[in-house]
Amino acid sequence: MNTPAFDISDLKQFDEPANLLKALSHPIRLCIVRGLMRKKKCNVSYMQECLDLPQSTVSQHLQKLRSAGIVATERNGLEVNYVLADQRIEQIIPILFGEDDCES
């Protein structure tokens, strides 16, 4: 029995991947994710400095990425660092930007 190419019987299966792509669909968030791939982890202050954006703006973008499960936090005393939390991102971003652009 062949599975049809377009099967809408279980649209729920598309919710999570669609939400992942929505969270990535902003230039600043893509920049943050690619930066985390290169640096492995960093704090909001470092990102703010690199992006030349207000801390509140960077934090809002990080919250969207965190809500989608793309990034997570690691606490070291008072410092909070962000890291990539979804392994699929490490496959998606190099496809979008090319392999050499995403290596540290």
From TrEMBL:
InterPro entries referenced in this protein's UniProt entry, alphabetically = ArsR-like_HTH (IPR011991), HTH_ArsR_DNA-bd_dom (IPR001845), Metal_resp_trans_reg (IPR051011), WH-like_DNA-bd_sf (IPR036388), WH_DNA-bd_sf (IPR036390)
- Name a GO molecular-function annotation: DNA binding
Keyword DNA-binding part of the UniProt annotation: yes
Please report the stretch or stretches of sequence annotated as the HTH arsR-type domain: 9-104
Q: A Pfam family for this UniProt protein?
A: HTH_20
Q: What keywords appear on the UniProt entry? A: DNA-binding, Transcription, Transcription regulation
Indicate yes or no for the key word DNA-binding.
Answer: yes
UniProt cross-references to SMART domains, sorted A to Z: HTH_ARSR
Organism domain of life: Bacteria
User: PANTHER family, alphabetically?
Assistant: ARSENICAL RESISTANCE OPERON REPRESSOR ARSR-RELATED (PTHR43132:SF2)
UniProt-recorded name of the protein: Transcriptional regulator
The organism encoding this protein is Paenibacillus xylanivorans
